[in-house]
């Protein structure tokens, strides 16, 4: 990844950056930039925003402005822009501690009739660089934005800034947002498993936790970190990468209950059957055309109760796993912020049409840096969980999987608390004038 001549920015722990980028930024006629957030939020996407804004203020050419688009690409089309350059240090600090997405996001595929409008807004505000912070859908949107600008003869640098709790963007060691969601889920499953074990003698014997992950099971695999010793939950991991076999699953549940008295299960919302079909999905689709998922846990619980007679509880983590800023991974926060910083520094050094991705240098202690990957690389098909990250039976985390996942959830970065609750405050962004 990246190659020997890749632009590389070192961001390990807290040392200041200073490797592989120029302090003489490339200046063009369209010297302003735009930042927007896209897709499902993460607990640390605002840390990326804070890092990017801070780097722009420190490194951009004098007079160059950084705009923010409300609600992603939709806000750009509707010219709902704010001045991010005006944020002060205390506001950036607050932003970095906030969950959700401070500017708002969207799931929107650009339509042919919107192309001219897109270019017109970019020209109007002299925007030469677009930073689009999102997952795979945002990466594809970056490709669309670039193609539209090129067709119009408009000089534009398009930078995909990665984030997704699904952890499925190619060519990066981990996606900002994943480590924190993984930490929340593994913590929740460890605690729920202890609850289950206490009640199993006379009550529920099976608990099923449903995680997000449309096509890949990274979050479900991360739940396996909760088990440190034999017999600890989760006892069964169900990933999209392994076709679901109901008879085999029920047999494993019965064996686990017979042996330990209870069985904790982590299951991906994108669980598939032998023919690759989704086992549970609604008929609804989002703006990008993806089917709405959710409901695998109650479906599995109904099968367990009907076939085995066990009392079964289930939970769907849903938004909770991606919004839990109170229990983020310090590693994830550092990577999220560094990714935003690197996006600016690498772009100002002259690199074009890229994504700043994380490269693992060592497992223990965990060391990493950031390199520029071409847009074409990060828009490739989703990265799936490798087969060797699971045990041979496919139901538990292997040593290789644990070695990869464990460093990503390390460390805590608590937000400030007030009256017993996190004291979250989204900065008040200043709308820019829309007059010519």
UniProtKB/TrEMBL annotation:
The active site is at residue 166. Diphosphate binds at residue 40. It is found in: Cytoplasm. The record marks 163 as: Important for catalytic activity. Its cofactor is Mg(2+). GO terms for cellular component: cytoplasm. It holds the Pfam family PFK. Substrate binds at residues 164-166, 212-214, 269, 319-322. Residues 36-345 form the Phosphofructokinase domain. One of its GO terms (biological process) is fructose 6-phosphate metabolic process. It comes from the Bacteria. Non-allosteric. Keywords: Cytoplasm, Glycolysis, Kinase, Magnesium, Metal-binding, Transferase. PANTHER family: ATP-DEPENDENT 6-PHOSPHOFRUCTOKINASE 1 (PTHR45770). Catalyzes the phosphorylation of D-fructose 6-phosphate, the first committing step of glycolysis. Uses inorganic phosphate (PPi) as phosphoryl donor instead of ATP like common ATP-dependent phosphofructokinases (ATP-PFKs), which renders the reaction reversible, and can thus function both in glycolysis and gluconeogenesis. Consistently, PPi-PFK can replace the enzymes of both the forward (ATP-PFK) and reverse (fructose-bisphosphatase (FBPase)) reactions. Homodimer. HAMAP family: Phosphofructokinase_II_B2. Belongs to the phosphofructokinase type A (PFKA) family. PPi-dependent PFK group II subfamily. Clade 'B2' sub-subfamily. This is Pyrophosphate--fructose 6-phosphate 1-phosphotransferase. It comes from Fluviicoccus keumensis. The lineage of its organism: Bacteria, Pseudomonadati, Pseudomonadota, Gammaproteobacteria, Moraxellales.
